[in-house]
Design brief:
Layout lengths: L8 H32 L1 H10 L2 H24 L3 H28 L5 H23 L6 H22 L4 H25 L6 H26 L2
Helix pairs in contact: 1-4, 1-8, 2-4, 3-4, 3-8, 4-8, 5-7, 5-8, 6-7, 7-8
Length: 227
Amino acid sequence: MITVAQARPNERAEFIKRTYTHLAGAVGAFIVVEFLFFQLGIAQMLATFFMGSRFGWLALLGGFALLGYMASNMAAKANDVNTQYMGLGLYVIGEAILFAPLLVMAVLYSDPSVLPTAAVITLFLFGGLTAVAFTSGKDFSFLGGVLKIAGMIALGLIVCSLLFGFSLGLIFSFFMVAFAGAAILYKTSNVMYRYSTNQHVAASLELFAAVMLLFWYVLRIVMSSRR
């Protein structure tokens, strides 16, 4: 397999353009789905259901993890481009469902500036980290092992907090912002060194997952600071 880094400059430029165009499209689709959720009352229903029970959150996280695994496999391994798009679409919908309860709290029960502030911070952080990944010329694949260990620890803490009813607090949110930042560096590096030039859909899904993780914890931090 010829990776993007080994491809001709024009092919590399075209791949990057398509990848980030699809990333922007995924973010736009997420916004549209959330808008529809709010207009139809689905977001409020999801918030009532999942915020009313910690076991509801566990079921949501478990289902979302399964959906994410299936969607990423569909996008990365399928030869049919329509199947790849289906994987990306499923992941966008899964993110919209997961985010709905948090966005209900941000929109209906927090300062009106919380949501745009978190979005701007996320955009600047993602832009800065992307610039570092592309301009440094480094392969950040060494972060893969660190991310796996840190991810397992974070997931274990989240599950324990839901099972035993304790709060992880603001420090954990800052840790997860750092984790998401490292994931963006790692996955942006993968775009160049691990993907071929026909895998732009899979690459956009990986970046979208990292961006949404960053946004989730930035939003939680901003919400906590405005209380």
